[in-house]
Design brief:
about 140 residues, alpha+beta, GMP Synthetase, Chain A, domain 3, 3-stranded antiparallel β-sheet, two-stranded antiparallel sheet, 5 strands, OsmC family protein
């Protein structure tokens, strides 16, 4: 299993790392060149939906299809939650007739509902265990 961690690099600045060598810069909205944790949550959702839909879309549109998945949702700062997130797939289905478009969209929605772990976790909620390892 891939290990994940963040290291503090400055005031409200962190670098997220994986044991596979990946890294992402994380910080507050006022810091240039970083993602906020909430932005990463939204990106994770969009990427998961994209990856979950990749096979049915590639089967129908070809391996080199283009898609952009936009994700948005404002935070409720009073309760510190995102009450709603919205995803929009932008892709060219003009070569398909309306019935084929509808069938493909239904297939993609089912694939996302079935295998997008991030979306399923957000919809179901999850338990987070917090602990501290203190030296000294």
């Amino acid at each position: 299993m891939t290990e994940l961690w963040v290291e503090r690099t400055g005031t409200r600045r962190y670098t997220g790392r994986s044991s596979r060598g990946a890294q992402v810069l994380v910080g507050s909205e006022s810091v240039a060149g970083v993602f906020t944790p909430g932005e990463l949550l939204k990106i994770a959702l969009a990427a998961c939906s994209g990856m979950s839909s990749d096979l049915p879309l590639a089967r129908r549109l070809g391996e080199n299809y283009d898609v952009t998945i936009r994700v948005s949702g404002a935070a409720d700062r009073e309760n510190e939650v995102y009450p709603q997130l919205s995803e929009t797939f932008e892709l060219d289905l003009s070569e398909l007739d309306r019935a084929a478009q509808d069938r493909l969209i239904t297939t993609v929605q089912r694939a996302i509902d079935r295998v997008c772990t991030v979306g399923r976790t957000l919809q179901a909620g999850t338990t987070v265990d917090l602990s501290f390892q203190i030296d000294g």
